[in-house]
Every structure is written in structure tokens, then in C-alpha cells.
Design goal:
- The protein has helices at about 10-30, 30-55, 55-60, 65-75, 75-80, 100-115, 125-145, 150-155, 160-165, 170-185, 190-205, 215-240, 245-255, 265-280, 290-295, 305-335, 340-365, 385-405; strands at about 80-85, 85-95, 95-100.
- The protein has about 400 residues and is mainly alpha-helical.
- It has a three-stranded antiparallel β-sheet.
- A hairpin with a 2-residue loop joins strand 1 (about 80-85) and strand 2 (about 85-95).
- Helix 1 (about 10-30) runs antiparallel to helix 2, helix 10 packs across helix 12 and helix 17 (about 340-365) runs antiparallel to helix 18.
- The protein is globular.
- The two termini are about 15 Å apart.
- The mean pLDDT is about 90.
């Protein structure tokens, strides 16, 4: 049997294609950073080979240790972290910086997979559900305290993996309703929104009056949920007012447009959209983008790297990159579903969902569909720790899939 049997060649090709295309685009923005990114990619491949020759059981046996280490790295940011761009979520060693939250996600994915694949796990029981939520919640709470809102949003990706394992879909429905009310209250007068919510509740109760088991618990549930939604509608604008100015403006840009904040929080978005829109169908050509070469967009090599693709490679190149990501993420989900081992499946779903969240938020951010929250584009944004962390997750899954395909069980 050839050693390549069981290695998913399509996934490996897409990983390399996206990563190399990233190096080319970072090089276009800054030649020095492009060379560094290529070195980071080579280092990631070396680490990937090491992972591939390790015993598969290592990731299950040491999941808890990796998880605890990731949480400790996050906690260590409070006394030892370096503040960059207003957030103290980096370690700095000489000229090298590391963002530990990227590695903490690996620990959570492994720990969650290890627990869910255990013989005592049953998502329908309160103990199992609470334990799974604690595994996700501990590092998420530390991230919230940093605070790093963007990374906190990414932690919701693990609920997709739990949903595959039987988590009730109401968790997503309730979360979506709460988020929707919060955002809607920023655009609509809270009083009108509260009236609207009350009317909707009244219509629902009227339509289901005889189906409701009227007792203390049902009445308390109806009133409690109504008060919660009305409270969010009332408090949403007040929460926005208490946010730091730059965070508040990033949200207001979605409602008022980037031109209203063109000299502050809307500057990045204004030039990002200008760069993407100016690329046309086939783009202006490699290293020919006026916005890219003029360095009008801050952080263009990291969070806003996609606008370089749009300007220099046009709609065609940007669409091709999106297709590559979509196929890659879909492929990970597909392979995860085929795993014989629950550990492999949960880790694969966690990995694919993290990629999906990063991809969706980053593209939404550079196109003005989502507030700027500092989320890198996987494998594509400049950064050694980000590329290495994503590559580690990638090769762990490649290894798990390889072992599963060659298993006789």
C-alpha cells in the first residue's frame, strides 16, 4: 500500500494553493513581509510533516494538556501581553509576535472532541451539555476579558460541532433572535421595537392559547422572555454609548455608511471597497493596484488582504479564491462526516466551523457587511502565529483522516 493512500489530495492542494496565493498577494503589498510569510509557510509545512508522522492517539491522549496550556497562554496575556492596536492579545519576543488565542482554539477543538467521543457523553443530559459548554466557555470568558470581540465570535463555531452531535437547534434560534433584537434596536427607536415585540408576543399567544399549558412555569417563561427581549431593545443603544469610541464607530459604520466616518473608523472600509470595486472583472494586474501600491488601506497585509485580491485580480480572481475556500471548507465537513471515530468527526467539524467563521467574518468585514473586529483570513492574512495555528489544525485533521481511511476497523 502506498503511503499516499488515505491522504486527501484535494484538501492538500487547496491548502497549498490558498497559502501560496496569499504569499504572492502579501508580497505585492510589502515585499519584505511576503518573504517572511513564505518562511512561515515553509515552517508550517515542516511542522505539518512532524504532525503527520506522530501517533494518532497522541492528540486524544494529550488533548487535556494542550487545552490547559492554551488557556494558560491566554491568562498569561494579562501580566505579560503586549498591546497592539488597542488590544493586549499578543506576546512579543524580540521581533516576533504571537497571538495565543489562535493556539487556544486548537486546544478547545481537541478537548471538545475528546469529551464528546467519550462513552459517558449524551448531549441530551444536563451534565454532558454543561460540561461541553464549560470547555468552550472557560477560554471564551478569558478572551472576553482581554477583550477580543472578534475571537470571541469565532468560539461560537464550536456550537456547530455540538449541533452535529445532537445539540438542540433552539440554541441557534434563540441566539439569532437576541442578536437580531440587539442590532435592530440600533437602527429603530427602542420604544417602537418594544411595542412591536409585545404585539408579536400577543399574536403568538392568541394563536396558541389553547395549546399552552397555563401554569406558573409557562407564565413565568412567557413574561421572562418578553422582558428579556424588551430589556435588550431598551439597553442596546445605551450599551453602544458606553463602548470605546473606535468600537462604537465600527458598529455605526454599518448603519450610517463609511463616508460618515471617513477620517476615523470608516477609512479602512472606504478604501477597501474602493480597491475591490476598481479591480473590474480581471483586475488591474499584479503589483499594479493603485490603492494597494499606494498603501491607502492600513493593515492591508493582514485583516484587509482581500481588497488586494479584488483590486489586482478583479472579480475573477476574488471569485476563484472564494470558490477555493468554499470547496476546502465543504471538503473538511464532508470528510468529517465520513469518519468512523467520533473524536475525528468532532475535531473535523470544529476545524471546518472555525475556518467558516473566520472566512465569513473577514470577507463581510472588508465589504462593509460586518464591523471591523480584527479577524484574519485563514492562511491568507500575514502573520506567522495565525498561519502556523491554522496549519497545525489542518495537518492534525489530515493525520486523523489518513489514519481513519487506513484503519481496518
Amino acid at each position: 500500500m502506498k503511503w499516499t493512500e488515505g491522504l486527501d489530495k484535494l484538501s492538500l492542494f487547496l491548502y497549498l494553493a490558498i497559502s501560496l496565493f496569499a504569499v504572492a498577494n502579501i508580497y505585492s503589498v510589502d515585499e519584505g513581509l511576503g518573504k517572511k510569510q513564505f518562511i512561515f509557510l515553509c515552517l508550517s509545512l515542516v511542522v505539518g510533516v512532524i504532525i503527520f508522522v506522530m501517533r494518532t492517539k497522541f492528540f486524544e491522549n494529550f488533548a487535556s494538556i494542550i487545552y490547559v496550556f492554551g488557556v494558560l497562554l491566554l491568562i498569561g496575556l494579562f501580566p505579560f501581553g503586549t498591546e497592539i492596536l488597542g488590544q493586549k492579545n499578543w506576546y512579543k519576543f524580540g521581533g516576533f509576535t504571537m497571538q495565543p488565542v489562535e493556539f487556544a482554539k486548537i486546544g478547545v477543538a481537541l478537548m471538545l472532541a475528546n469529551y464528546v467521543s467519550g462513552p459517558d457523553f449524551n448531549i441530551s443530559t444536563r451534565k454532558s451539555l454543561l460540561t461541553a459548554l464549560v470547555i468552550i466557555g472557560i477560554p471564551a470568558l478569558v478572551v472576553l476579558m482581554i477583550p477580543d470581540v472578534g475571537s470571541l465570535l469565532v468560539f461560537t463555531a464550536f456550537f456547530i460541532a455540538l449541533f452535529r452531535e445532537g445539540l438542540n437547534g433552539w440554541f441557534f434560534g434563540v441566539g439569532g433572535i437576541l442578536a437580531g433584537v440587539f442590532l435592530l434596536a440600533l437602527a429603530v427607536d427602542p420604544l417602537y421595537l418594544i411595542i412591536g415585540i409585545s404585539v408579536i408576543y400577543g399574536l403568538i399567544i392568541f394563536a396558541n392559547y389553547y395549546k399552552i399549558h397555563w401554569n406558573v412555569f409557562s407564565v413565568a417563561g412567557i413574561l421572562g422572555s418578553l422582558l428579556l427581549l424588551c430589556g435588550i431593545a431598551y439597553g442596546s443603544p445605551k450599551i453602544l454609548e458606553k463602548m470605546p469610541k473606535h468600537q462604537r464607530e465600527r458598529i455605526e459604520v454599518l448603519y450610517k455608511g463609511e463616508k460618515a466616518f471617513r477620517d476615523t473608523s470608516g477609512y479602512n472600509l472606504l478604501y477597501s471597497k474602493t480597491a475591490i470595486g476598481s479591480g473590474g472583472f480581471f483586475g488591474k494586474g499584479y503589483k499594479e493596484g493603485s490603492v494597494t501600491q499606494g498603501k491607502f488601506v492600513p493593515e492591508q497585509e493582514t485583516d484587509y488582504i482581500f481588497c488586494t485580491v479584488g483590486e489586482e485580480w478583479g472579480f475573477f480572481g476574488a471569485s476563484l479564491l472564494v470558490i477555493f475556500y468554499a470547496v476546502f471548507i465543504g471538503r473538511i465537513y464532508y470528510l468529517s462526516e465520513k469518519q468512523k471515530s467520533a473524536f475525528n468527526r468532532v475535531f473535523g467539524y470544529s476545524f471546518a466551523s472555525i475556518l467558516l467563521m473566520h472566512f465569513a467574518i473577514n470577507l463581510g468585514m472588508v465589504m462593509g457587511l460586518f464591523p471591523t473586529v480584527g479577524i484574519p483570513l485563514p492562511y491568507f492574512s500575514y502573520g506567522g502565529s495565525s498561519l502556523l495555528a491554522f496549519s497545525i489544525m489542518t495537518f492534525i485533521f489530515f493525520k486523523l483522516n489518513y489514519a481513519d481511511r487506513n484503519s481496518l476497523v
